């Protein structure tokens, strides 16, 4: 299934003063092709979650259209599954019940639900947590449960809002590999919001850079690398550099807040890392030339 966003415009009314409003998205257009994995990168507050929730049909827009396979949608549907930034799990349900909830709603037989649950828990290394309550899990575990719940019903479109934001570096890389394997196999069309340049390059077919200028798309970069991707190859690093530069320009000239400072800090650290790797690569070339 494909997604087409056409001239999307969204403004929020000021709750105290009805005459005032804030224009967050202005005339935004982009496509996600059937089976494609596209990431949405951008500074905090530029409207990524707003765009994603409108595509999911969770909130209304003021202008433009969302087309799924060419048909306009305005409401949520079983074709689209959503992974929320803050998990949105049911605290009164156990892990297993949370994951099986969408299957239960679709009246999938209990035996099938149980089998699927077992396979999903195994895949995300969450065996033995089936009977735990959500408050008993770490942030990273909650994120994995949220991801499994979205995948449980095998959606054709997966919308993810920073799905791996709270997991540690190692678990993040492991889940990226698993995510890629599952999505490639199932041919799920995916739109993911992330703050992580490396994650965007590792997983995406295309990366869209959104700016604070009413969500204007600053760049639409095709990641032309074979899968599974090799983080050590030179091309990977040039994508890192290109996207980092674009992200920087998405922040330029804007009022900076604390989250922006964090992002700039991340970009600077990243630049340092990519410099080290580039030096190592160049050294490697020198050695192989010897
Ligand atoms: N329900 C709402 N009412 C009023 N303003 C809102 C509402 N939801 C979002 N906004 C505003 O819209 C802008 C974009 O918010 P959004 O959550 O889409 O940003 P984001 O790019 O996802 O940021 P982050 O990276 O921090 O998650 C922000 O200025 C936010 O305050
Ligand atoms: Mg957000």
| Ligands bound to this protein structure | adenosine-5'-triphosphate, magnesium ion
Q: Mind telling me the CATH class of the domain at 3-79 and 155-232?
A: Alpha Beta
Number of strands: 10
The unreliable regions are 283-290
Helical content stands at 40-55%
Structure description:
By secondary structure, the chain is α/β, with parallel strands linked by helices. It has a domain at 3-79 and 155-232: P-loop containing nucleotide triphosphate hydrolases (Rossmann fold), CATH 3.40.50.300. Helix content is 42%, strand content 21%. The protein contains eight helices and ten strands. It has helices at residues 48-56, 95-105, 110-123, 139-151, 169-186, 197-203, 234-251, 258-289, and strands at residues 3-13, 21-32, 37-41, 63-68, 71-72, 80-83, 157-161, 189-194, 206-210, 217-222. The chain has a six-stranded mixed sheet with strand order 6-7-8-3-9-10, with helices on both faces. A four-stranded antiparallel sheet has the order 2-1-4-5, covered by helices on one side. Helix 2 runs parallel beside helix 4 (139-151) and helix 7 runs antiparallel to helix 8 (258-289). The chain is globular, with a radius of gyration of 20 Å. The termini are far apart. The structure holds adenosine-5'-triphosphate and magnesium ion. Magnesium ion binds at residues 48-49, 85, 161.
């Amino acid at each position: 299934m494909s997604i087409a966003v056409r001239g999307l415009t969204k403004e929020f009314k000021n709750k105290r003063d009805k005459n005032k409003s804030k224009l967050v998205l202005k005339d935004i257009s982009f496509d996600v092709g059937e089976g494609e994995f596209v990431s949405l990168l951008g500074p905090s507050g530029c409207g990524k979650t707003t765009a994603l929730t409108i595509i999911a049909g969770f909130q209304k827009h003021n202008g433009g259209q969302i087309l799924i396979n060419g048909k306009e949608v305005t409401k949520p549907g079983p074709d689209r599954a959503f992974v929320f930034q803050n998990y949105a799990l049911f605290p009164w349900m156990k892990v297993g019940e949370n994951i099986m909830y969408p299957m239960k709603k679709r009246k999938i037989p209990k035996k099938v639900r149980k089998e699927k649950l077992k396979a999903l828990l195994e895949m995300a290394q969450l065996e033995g947590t089936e009977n735990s309550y959500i408050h008993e899990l770490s942030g990273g575990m909650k994120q994995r449960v949220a991801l499994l719940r979205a995948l449980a019903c095998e959606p054709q479109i997966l919308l993810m809002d920073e799905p791996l934001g709270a997991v540690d570096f190692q678990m993040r890389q492991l889940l990226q590999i698993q995510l890629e394997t599952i999505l490639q196999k199932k041919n799920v069309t995916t739109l993911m919001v992330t703050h992580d340049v490396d994650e965007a390059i590792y997983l995406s077919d295309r990366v869209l850079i959104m700016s604070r200028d009413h969500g204007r798309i600053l760049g639409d970069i095709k990641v032309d690398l074979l899968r599974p991707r090799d983080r050590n190859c030179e091309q990977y690093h040039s994508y890192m550099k290109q996207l980092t530069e674009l992200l920087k320009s998405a922040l330029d000239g804007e009022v900076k807040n604390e989250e922006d400072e964090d992002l700039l800090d991340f970009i600077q650290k990243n630049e340092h890392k990519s410099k080290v790797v580039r030096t190592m690569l160049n050294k490697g070339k020198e050695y192989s030339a010897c």
